[in-house]
Structure to design on (215 residues):
């Protein structure tokens, strides 16, 4: 299995544990890591690698279901405008983050405390990548207009404006109110998309932003 495949597999395992914990919590329980592992049909040893303690697991599990999947967010959407699609995705995460700020700060604190040393290979993920699939799905209508390198940079740049980290910057560093933060993020997202499309277009014959992706 290649590196990307291993990353995806680990994210799926982590997601299965969070989903199992959420199911048990909906029953009014506060499950241990071992109980969640049994519910998810995953070994205890594996579960403890992803969530070393009960409080780490229970801090994140209720939030997991708050983030829409790409299928839920774009169901029935025929729009091919990447700016509008990305703006809709960020708006949903923006509302979710500010509505669950206290719990997300706990989750962020715990994930930072359990983060592996920089550069460590084959590390177990300490965070679920929820923003990535939303961004990729939002960009799907223009995927053939973005060369590989530009697409990769665009997804990475857009990720900086989605999620709890962005909220911390706007709230704690800039002391910006949620409504203004949302407006700034919307502006930045649209600017990044336009810049990426223009950059890719320059690599195609004619330089039109409506050209096809270089092969």
């Amino acid at each position: 299995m290649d590196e990307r495949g291993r990353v995806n597999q680990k994210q799926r395992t982590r997601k299965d544990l969070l989903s199992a914990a959420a199911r048990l919590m909906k029953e009014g329980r506060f499950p241990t890591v071992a109980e969640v592992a049994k519910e998810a049909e995953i070994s205890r040893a594996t579960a403890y690698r992803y969530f070393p303690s009960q409080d780490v697991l229970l801090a994140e599990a209720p939030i997991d279901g708050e983030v829409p999947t790409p299928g839920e967010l774009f169901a029935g959407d025929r729009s091919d405008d990447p700016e509008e699609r990305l703006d809709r995705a960020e708006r949903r995460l923006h509302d979710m983050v500010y509505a669950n700020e206290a719990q997300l700060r706990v989750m962020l604190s715990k994930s930072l405390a359990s983060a592996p040393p920089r550069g460590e290979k084959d590390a177990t993920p300490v965070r679920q990548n929820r923003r990535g699939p939303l961004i990729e799905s939002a960009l799907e209508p223009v995927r053939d207009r973005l060369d590989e390198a530009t697409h990769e940079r665009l997804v990475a740049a857009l990720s900086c404006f989605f999620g709890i980290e962005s909220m911390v910057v706007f709230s704690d560093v800039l002391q910006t109110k949620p409504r203004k933060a949302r407006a700034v993020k919307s502006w930045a997202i649209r600017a990044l998309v336009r810049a990426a499309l223009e950059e890719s277009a320059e690599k195609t014959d004619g330089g039109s932003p409506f050209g096809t992706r270089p092969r």
About this structure: Residues 1-65 form one domain. Confidence is low (pLDDT under 50) at residues 208-215. The two ends are 26 Å apart (CA to CA). DSSP finds eleven helices and no strands in the chain.
